[in-house]
Amino acid sequence: xxxxxxxxxxxxxxxxxxxxxxxxxxxxxxxxxxxxxxxxxxxxxxxxxxxxxxxxxxxxxxxxxxxxxxxxxxxxxxxxxxxxxxxxxxxxxxxxxxxxxxxxxxxxxxxxxxxxxxxxxxxxxxxxxxxxxxxxxxxxxxxxxxxxxxxxxxxxxxxxxxxxxxxxxxxxxxxxxxxxxxxxxxxxxxxxxxxxxxxxxxxxxxxxxxxxxxxxx
Length: 217
Fold this sequence. Notes:
Blueprint: E1 6-10, H1 16-23, E2 27-32, E3 43-46, E4 59-62, H2 73-76, H3 86-94, E5 99-104, E6 114-116, E7 130-134, E8 150-151, E9 154-155, E10 158-159, E11 165-166, H4 176-183, H5 190-194, H6 199-215
Parallel strand pairs: 1-2, 1-4, 2-3, 4-5, 8-11
Antiparallel strand pairs: 5-7, 6-7, 9-10
Helix pairs in contact: 1-6
């Protein structure tokens, strides 16, 4: 029986990255400091991602909290209350011999990152830019951003996705049904989606990593 390469998803939440890595062919273990009843991976540990053992994995993906780096921090006036963990996470990952990826928002201090947007993936209908710092260098993107699509109108407090429209899925300003369609997610609540990336992003990165892993065997 062939054993799948193993991936570790740190700060996993409900598993947007995990689902993408699974689609790329990995067995995925998730770690989060909070309970994640809807986590979709093969194994889950409620633990501190900054101290969880990192050995035994072919690739490690980490999504440190983004609140300290998001552009909304100055509007909310509470950016200083959130931890800035990217440098600590990078130092931990660099101590490992395997592949690793750090994911975060556009203003995060990632080094030579790949930027992905939902408009690069034909199955998605979301504007959500995310950066990916990869230990093996910057991968080529699957395409270019195309923000010419119409944004869904606000229906009360939330955006509702109609035909031929895109939504931002920024914060919590979207209906759960629309978010699931836009992001290619069918197992999360709206609050969980607000903290997730579309699995297609991680699947794209994961397939590149899988090629590197299998070519080295």
